[in-house]
Amino acid sequence: MGKIEVRNLTKIYGNNVEKALQMLRNGCDNQEIRENTKQVVGVREATFSVEQGECFVIMGLSGSGKSTLLRCINRLIKATDGEIVIDGEDVNKVSSRRLEVLRQEKIAMVFQRFALLPHRNILDNIAYGLEVQGEPRPIRYEKAFQALELVGLKGWEDSYPGNLSGGMQQRVGIARALATDPDILLMDEPFSALDPLIRQDMQDELLAIQQKLQKTILFVTHDLDEALKVGDRIALMKDARIVQIGSPEEILLSPASDYVARFVENVNRSRALTASAVMVKPRAVAHPKDGPLTALTFMEKHGLSTIFVTDRAGHLQGYVQAEDASALVEAGIRELDGIINPEVPTAAPDTMLSDLLDTLAYTKVPLAVVDDQGRLKGVLVRGSVIAGLAGERRGSHE
Amino acid sequence: MNSIPRLPLARWTDDLINYLQGHWGASTQAFSDQMESLIKGLQQLLISIPPELFIIVIALLAWWLAGRKMAIFSVIGLFFIYNVKLWEVTMETLSMVIAAVLLCAVVGIPLGILSAKNLTAHRIIAPVLDFMQTLPAFVYLLPAIPFFGLGVVPGVLTTIIFAMPPVIRLTDLGLRQVPEELIELGRSFGSTFFQMLFKIELPLARATILAGINQCIMLSLSMVVIAAMIGAKGLGGVVWRAIQTLKFGMGFEAGVAIVVIAIILDRITQNLGKSK
């Protein structure tokens, strides 16, 4: 059971939703519903579950319903139908008093345009949630100050929002949301209003904070690069519907529909793809006990100039070059040991491709992907990497 | 057209006022006495302040809120009023304006909040405000006499009717203009109705509400002068007497004094909303 369980969440805007809801259940599309009932479908039958400590990204273009979906989670917008269960409690059904408590203690929100109160200084802005909870002033300021330090704004507590840059204002927004120590953070395009460079800094910072605090985050964005970077899982929305939910790699490598495929077409894949996603199986592996002739035969058969050597358990020993092997054959030596070159460029399976491009550009031998036990898992050859970056599906480049 | 009998609106109104006077006259008279003592008290207070001290305080306030030029103007203008022996009547006028504006704020701001928060209330209040603002003042100036007698109280009450609409309207407007995201902020942190109002909405609507108060002050001043016709005294009383006795010079002096007070009040309160 996840921290947040959303089942069949539907939001229809209008003053007569019953008929529209009926049509929606019968499978009519949004257009038909609007023409027949004048009701607008905001979200249709969204179902997903978010785990404790997960960063779940809801992504889609404007008008896809992602912000509506987010606002249903803390009932800023009341869902027409469906359940939003947080720790076993259906937000859509609780009393308004209980809802206030939930919002005060459990769910905090970060806004696209920061939503700082211009008449309050930074510390009082951060302390807003604590003030609403009724915390006495000293405790409120102490906690607000901790949050302020966490986002790196120490020294700005007496300034007013108007004197801060956009990036700093959003840090205040994040600090305010964290000050009440909520379990869940709802972030509505928090970095969309920022310059690209600042945006990346803020994403890094969010990831660092998340590493430390392990909140459950729902993050709305229209920027796929951002989604891939911060999201543990991504839900892609189109026309009020979730069209795919998956890890960044799943979305990139096996898009569920043409729409998703087109969406991911132009993304910077090197930041989302890991070594394991584009590596190929090592097609030939020699063992130290194999003779040079065996190794040479392998290489000739597969058209390779180098071959990786592993022990029987699969631990990578190094590589052997074809010319060394043939010299060994001519010299009549039966053991490969003498010519195994242990200096292989390696990468862990979860290394991002963007971190490997340099190495790949200059190495003469393929890059070996090894796990933390030192076992050879796969090989990165330039061809497969380029294919991966170009967005072909796995296996289709053979 | 002529076959339709004349609508007896005038008679109905007379009947209503007679009825109200017969049944409520005693209580309105009691209310009137209460209010009169309040306004008179305020008047005594203002008159008891030494003019020199009063001029200095106003000049400092003008300096702080509206700059040096306004401070100099205040000194000269107020000294002029003192010099032409209109000081006491000016204080009478001022006390009526203050009483009217305070009552407008106390009643008008809550009504503005109600109008912003509740659609039904808004639909009722908006046309009533239009009615209050466009109905010629003389029409309700005279019926005030049977209820509250002649004097300052009916003057102040009719002034309130005339000057309250902008307070209500601009409070309503100010609250409606609070950015949607800040409303969402308040709600998303679980604020109660009153927390929303006092921590977010009213502070953000402050400048607009103060603009409403500023308009209210100006309208009060102009109405307080007209109210002299039903015995409200003050600067308006001087003007009224000057008109009746054809003393143009006296009328002009009082007129200038009203302009001076108007400019000082306007500039000082106009900048209340802007200063941090």
Give the arrangement of secondary structure elements:
The complex is a heterodimer of chains A (398) and B (276).
Chain A: E1 4-13, H1 17-25, H2 30-37, E2 40-50, E3 55-60, H3 66-73, E4 81-86, E5 89-90, H4 96-105, E6 107-110, H5 122-126, H6 128-133, H7 137-150, H8 166-179, E7 184-188, H9 196-213, E8 216-221, H10 224-230, E9 233-238, E10 241-246, H11 248-253, H12 258-264, H13 275-278, E11 285-286, H14 292-302, E12 306-310, E13 316-321, H15 322-331, E14 346-347, H16 357-362, E15 367-370, E16 376-380, H17 382-390
Parallel strand pairs in A: 3-8, 3-9, 6-7, 7-8, 11-12, 14-15
Antiparallel strand pairs in A: 1-2, 1-4, 4-5, 9-10, 12-13, 15-16
Helix pairs in contact in A: 1-2, 7-8, 14-15
Chain B: H1 9-48, H2 51-66, H3 68-83, H4 87-117, H5 119-134, H6 137-141, H7 144-148, H8 152-176, H9 180-188, H10 193-226, H11 234-245, H12 248-270
Helix pairs in contact in B: 1-4, 2-3, 2-12, 3-12, 4-5, 4-8, 4-10, 4-11, 5-8, 8-10, 9-10, 10-12, 11-12
Overall SS class of chain B = mainly alpha
* Poorly predicted regions of chain B: none
Task: Name the helix and strand elements of chain B from N-terminus to C-terminus, one letter apiece.
Answer: HHHHHHHHHHHH
What class do helices, strands and sheet pairing of chain A give? Answer: alpha/beta
CATH class of the largest domain in chain A: Alpha Beta
- Rg of chain B (CA only): 21 Å
**Main sheet makeup of chain B:** none
The fraction of residues assigned to DSSP E strands of chain A is 15-25%
Classified by CATH, the class of chain B is Mainly Alpha
Distance between the termini of chain A: 41 Å
Tertiary shape of chain B:
globular
Nearest-integer average pLDDT of chain B: 90
Name some characteristics of this structure:
heterodimer, A: 398 residues, alpha/beta, Rossmann fold, CBS-domain, 2 domains, 6-stranded mixed beta sheet, 4-stranded antiparallel beta sheet, 17 helices, 16 strands, 22% strand, elongated, disordered C terminus, B: 276 residues, mainly alpha, MetI-like fold, 84% helix
